[in-house]
Amino acid sequence: MNSMSQPSHIFIVGLARTGTTLTRTILDSSDRIGLGGEAMFFGDKRWLGLKPREGYRHKFAHVGDLKTDAGVRRIVDYIYSIRQDNYWSKIAKKVDRAEFMLKLLATDRSERALLDLAMSFYAGNKPIRGEKTPANLYAVRQLLEWFPQARIIHAFRDPRAVYISNKRKYEHRALPRTSTLARKTKLLFEFYATLDVALAWRHAIQLHREYQRDYPGQYTLSKFEDLVTQPEGTLQKLCKFLDIPFQQCMLDQLVVNSSFLPKRQQAGFDKAAVDRWRQYLHPMLNRWFIFWCKRQLVEFGYVL
Q1: Does residue 90 belong to any structural domain of this protein?
Q2: How far apart are CA 53 and CA 70, in angstroms?
Q3: Count: domains in the chain
């Protein structure tokens, strides 16, 4: 593939809390790119005893067969019955059911076509479509098989910041029975949760190396720390990778998904997010991260 050709699709992937939402809102402000939120089409990988989370690809397959008209109707009915505020229910609110049905029936009735149709509604008249689902980090090969002219942006961040930013979700999510005992002792539970992040982060690096080797020109790593401290230079590099013009409006952002700041009440980029984890991470947990990730932390330029 010619690395300088403009992509048909853009997929933003990475661990949760690595800047995928910020990257999406930045690129979506371009007059050439229309990106939706999290389609969760392929599901998610889980660590330390948790079962993988099923994606909408599998849910739709349980509802109906795309190859039959009756199956398509059942799938469309299911999408238009979703009450949770998510990627699919938002499509149902903005697109007439009959229009969705007719357009889906006119495709080749594949899972790829269903996802592409959904992305087209979010893209509108913009020529480049796509979406951001962090868990698609594990589905990059499938995405590039389906969309050979696509580009992949892997959002990446210091794992200690990832943990602190995601800490509240760990405290409330369902966990294996063995770890619920650890929850009763706060620090012990945090050792469990930080190990979960460390293992996922190391695996993300392994995948990064594989994708970098196998998809030169189609895959790039984007560090959150560079994005918030050097936004213009970092965005210019991303635009060059995507073969799109850099636009000043990309820098006109509001903080939209911070765990520590009011939503949409701070303009610009939250530079303090780079080192904020140091205020909240127990020193013993920092040493625990270093034990598991020291070599990788140094390799990617993170201060121990």
Answers
A1: yes
A2: 27
A3: 1
What was the pLDDT predicted at 1? Answer: 41
H-type alpha helices, 147-273:
159-172, 177-183, 186-214, 224-229, 231-242
d(CA 218, CA 216): 5
pLDDT per residue over 23-35, tens digit each? 999 999 999 999 9
Q: Give the sign of the dihedral formed by CA 223, CA 227, CA 230, CA 235.
A: positive
CATH number of the structural domain spanning residue 102: 3.40.50.300
Answer for the pair 43, 58: CB distance below 8 angstroms, yes or no: yes
Angle between the N-to-C axes of helices 283-299 and 159-172, in degrees from 0 to 180, rounded to the nearest 10: 130
Q: Could you give the CA distance from residue 89 to residue 262 in angstroms, rounded to a whole number?
A: 25
Q: Is residue 63 part of a domain?
A: yes
Structural element, H or E, at residue 130? strand 128-132
Q: pLDDT-derived band of residue 2, with 50, 70 and 90 as boundaries?
A: very low
User: Can you read off the two tokens belonging to residue 237?
Assistant: 């590099």
For residues 78-96, give the mean pLDDT. 96
Instruction: List C-alpha distances in Å: 59 to 53, 75, 85, 129, 249.
Output: 11, 9, 17, 23, 38
Domain range for 288 is 9-299
Is 1 a domain residue? no
DSSP state, residue 217: T
Helices in the chain by DSSP H: which ranges?
20-28, 56-63, 69-79, 87-94, 97-105, 111-123, 140-146, 159-172, 177-183, 186-214, 224-229, 231-242, 277-280, 283-299
Amino acid in the structure at residue 167: K
Phi-psi region of 124 (alpha: psi -120 to 50; beta: other; left: phi over 0): left
Please give the C-alpha separations between residue 177 and each of 181, 183, 186, 200, in angstroms, as whole numbers: 7, 10, 16, 20
Cβ(15)–Cβ(157) below 8 Å: yes
For the record, the structure tokens of 20 come out as: 């995928």
